[in-house]
Every structure is written in C-alpha cells, then in structure tokens.
Amino acid sequence: MRRVALTGAGVISPVGTGKSNFFQQISAGISGIRRLQHPDAQRLGLQLAGQIQDFDPSQHFSKERLSTLDRFSQFALVAAHEAWQQAAYPSRFDHSRGGVFVGTGMGGASTLEAGYDALFRQQQNRVRPMSVIATMPNAAAANIGIEFSLRGPCYTYAVACASSSVAIGEAARAIAYGDLDVALAGGAEAMLCLGVLKGWEALMTLAIEDKQAPEQSCKPFAANRCGFVLGEGAGMLVLEDLELAQSRGATILAELVGYGVSNDAVHLSRPEPAGQAAAMRAALKQSQLRGIHLEDIGYINAHGTATKAGDASEVAAICDVFGAHRTALAISSTKAVHGHLMGAAGAIEFIATVLALQAQTLPPTAHLTERDPAFDLDFVPLHARPAPQLRAVMSNSFAFGGANAVLVAAHPDA
User: 176 partner at 20 to 30 Å CA-CA among 7, 10, 38, 374?
Assistant: First the structure.
C-alpha cells in the first residue's frame, strides 16, 4: 500500500477565495453568512445564505466557455487551478495515471432552474443550447479532466453532504492501491436558487434568523441552535503518491492516513449515532496502519450542522468512539461561518482540518456563547486556539440517506 500525500489545496467559499484567506477568516470567526442576493429572495422564509457575492466568472472564463459552465463547475475549476498551481505538479507526466474525483449534491442546479423558469414562467419554447452539458452532475469533473489533461478515471459522487469526502477518500484509495499517481479531488456546489431553497425550507432544517445578528444564525452545538444556513463554493485537493511527491521536492501539506465509510440503513433523514461511529472507527482502523492511533487525534472538524438531532447524534457518536480520550479532544464546526455547502461541505471542511494541522491552530465554533448543557465536550468556542502538539486530525461528513464518511490526516513524518 502506498502512502498518500496532500500537496495542493484550492478554495472558493463564502468567507473568501484562496486557501490562506479562507483559513484566516474561519480562524477569526468572521461569518460569510449574509442577505441572499436573489430576485425571489422575498419569497423565502430564511433570506440568508453563505453566498459568494463577489465572484465574477468573466475574470476566469471566456464568454464562449461560460456558455457550457454552470456556476458549480466554475467554482470547481477555480479551486482546482489553485490546488494544481500550489502542488506545482510537473507538466510532463503519464496523464493516464492522473484522475479526477468530484462530489456534488445537485450538480448544475441553477442552470436547471433557469431552464424551468424559461419554459414554465416565461412561457418560452427553448432553453439555452448547452443546458444538458452544464446541468449534468459530472460536468465539473469532466471539465477538470479536460482542463488538466487527466486521462485516468473521472468520477462524480452524489452522496448528499458526504459527497466530496467520499470523492477524496476514493481518490486516496486509488493512489494507495497503485492505480493512479495523482488526482484532483474535492467537491463543488451552487444550489442557491429558489426551488432548492424552498425544498430545504419545507424540510424545516434551516436556521431561524437571529434578528440581533443575522450573520450568527447558525449556532452549532449551542443550546439555542435551530438549524443550518445553506452555502455555496468548492474545495479541491491534489493527492499524490507520497514517495513521488518527496522525490520531486513537493511541499506536503499532510498525509491522508484514514478513510472510513458506513451506511446507517435506518432512516433517510434521521441521523444514527451507531452508523456515524462505525465510519469513525473504520477511518481510525486504517490510520493505525500508519501508526496513528485514537489517542493521536487532537482535533475533529465536526459535521456540526446546528440541527437539534444532528448535533446530538454526532456528539453521541464521538463519545462512543473516543471514550475517555474525548476529554482531550478539541472539536469545532466551521459551518457557523461558511454555511452548509452540501456536496462540497466535506472538501471545504477537510481542507480546513488539514490547514489547522499545518498551522497548529484550531478554528473555533463561532457564535457558541452558550453550549448545550447535554454536551460535555470542548467545542473551541468563539476564538481560535493554538495547538502546538497537534499530530493528527479528523473530519466528519454525515449525510441524508444515512451515508457517513470520515477522513483522517496526519503530519507526513508523524
């Protein structure tokens, strides 16, 4: 089994574009949640979102190219470029040994909705010519493959909130087993359109607006938590064989040492602690092969959606898995500031976790002024915290449908 290095990361998010800016903002607890800019926003019960409001696609793509790209693909390509540039991968390599692994919940949602709007509300008889090409869920992965001439497998994973964690884990597995040498992996989501927002509104999982501080409406693990705020964006990573990365002198952000998946097989929308615990144990079992044990985990970036049931289930699962070591764990949810990016959530949050390891700094759970008294864990409330002895970290992604995915990263010399 080969070891898997992370050598590049790219982010476009509601709290900033670029991985360094992103980590600086989440560490400062600066919220990217604000008033939704949308012509039909007044029809929504919650008019807040983690929306990327300063993104100008014309700065990145030609007019002709934009005709084929939904917003989620635009985000994926921007993040992939940052990751690839940082990895400084050689221009000459066996392109058949490079792959693409992307997670998304809904693919080209805005293009799909625009087509429906044209047909049913505006009574037009045609939609934009490239609607199918832009809407298809595998569009982001396909465009990345073309952009970087990666001719190995090009996969798209749709596993709700666990989509991009699964994409990263499966990319790591392909490299570990020797099927690939390098992969671009992560996720992208852009679903802030009326139909999707109304669907989530109907499920009653979205937060109630905090009238005193709307940007603080998402409060993971708080006594007064009431749900999440939807966001958009993308996170992409370059994964490669560790020995090859070292031989070319690459800067290694971390080593991906554990990947675990499970299925609750209980309920479509009610989380199950036993299934979540199973995924964490599977990731820890794999990480033991690299000498990383349960006691080495110092930080968990929690799924932490700020729903009553979701947070309670995750806390129960963490306590079950870590036992007495739970008192030495630091746990935070960055969804408080960037929102829930659905299919891209796992990638964005795993990047946050890797950057925490690299910076030896724990991002806080913002807005956590009063912890739920039922939760006796350290949620790094309000302010970032130095962690000079941080050796290994975990990122949790737990999805509707009962799918769970967990990633563990460590220093390459751990």
Answer: 10
